[in-house]
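User: I'm putting together a small comparison set for a docking exercise, and I want a reference complex before I start. The sequence is below, and the ligand is pyridoxal-5'-phosphate. Could you produce the 3D structure with the ligand included, as structure tokens?
Assistant: Of course. I'll restate your input first, then give the structure tokens for the complex.
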Amino acid sequence: MKYKTGQDRSQTTHWRQATRAVRGGTWRSEQGETSEALFITSGYSYEDAQTPAERFAGRAAGMTYSRTQNPTVQMLEERIALMEGAEACRVQASGMSAMSSVLLSRLSMGDHLVMARAAFGPTLWVTQNLLTRFGIATTLVDGRDLDAWKDAIQPNTKLFFFETPANPTMDIVDIRAVCDIAHEHGIDVAVDNAFASSALQRPMDLGADVVAYSATKLMDGQGRVLAGAVCASADWINTYLLPYQRNTGPTLAPFNAWVVLKGLETLDLRANAQARAALSVAQKLEKRVPCVLHPGLPSHPQHDLVKRQMKMAGSVFSFEVDGGRERAMAVLDALRLIDISNNIGDAKSLMTHPASTTHSSISPEARAAMGVSESMLRISVGLEDVEDLVEDLDQALHSVGL
Ligand SMILES: *Cc1c(COP(=O)(O)O)cnc(C)c1O
């Protein structure tokens, strides 16, 4: 079956965001299928012996082996790159393979990394337990403190890495200001954009060199598959990421790529609807509990920064209840609609107690330093009717005496 090769970029980069999400990267076969085809194949055959020779030598485009390329996977990469405004994208088997690929492909023995302390647990593990084994040192900083980023720079600093909004404290990093500091010193900036997605925040527009994703979250959006993605300039991808990825093999399966490809078609609708719903739920909760950490509320200390760099504040936020761990867990146990789950970005609303789940591997002291308290709950707001969510939270709080 002969496939039209990828779309001509010059024809698609003028498309607006919604159009990119639905049509970006689509290849179409001679069958004229409207939905993207799913290529479940590990290998490829050739018409003659010279064809693979040309492809292996890099003189001709075309598939050679699915660890390196697969048409369904490539459609997803092209679509994500277009939505991100990036020259290139490579997808991986999970968000964590994307994060570790960025760190391990960019950094070498003797290099130094500066990272915001409010980070995803496994990303912290990679820097504290894996990079150290290869002689790569990390300085953790408060990502909100611009002077801390400046002061942490050493002659061998190669990369800044942060998440914004950060999990579960909802700390915001000033993307443009941190990128300016880094670039003055020839340092690359990588942003984990899982909590916002390109629908709500595009870090490259603000100067980031690399944007890494857990596509498991809002991109799939329906809690089905694990996937990750790295976006950067073609030069960055070809110099650092591609040789690493081809030879170590954190490859995304075609089926999972196809699921995310279809998820992206509704990303803009879902991300905006879930963000609006999350803000409504947060406004209601603010009247019931002592503390709501939602970047879209005027009570958030970085609310002005959020307005500058995000379209909307996203679908995940945290809040605290009186009564510590016991009361927080009792609230979860009293829920009737919202699920107890540590996942985020699903169409179903999910709630977790970070101190005993996502952040349980971090010491109590480090948790306290990050601002993750025992009485904190985190909610990922889905696509249910907001009134039903508010009613469920209200009855759960009421049933534990709050
Ligand atoms: C979930 C998540 C990851 C890891 O992604 P997986 O797909 O679960 O491997 C990394 N960073 C952030 C911010 C996340 O929410």
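Residues 267-285 form the longest helix (19 residues). The domain at 268-399 is CATH 3.90.1150.10 (Aspartate Aminotransferase, domain 1).
User: Thanks, that's exactly what I needed.
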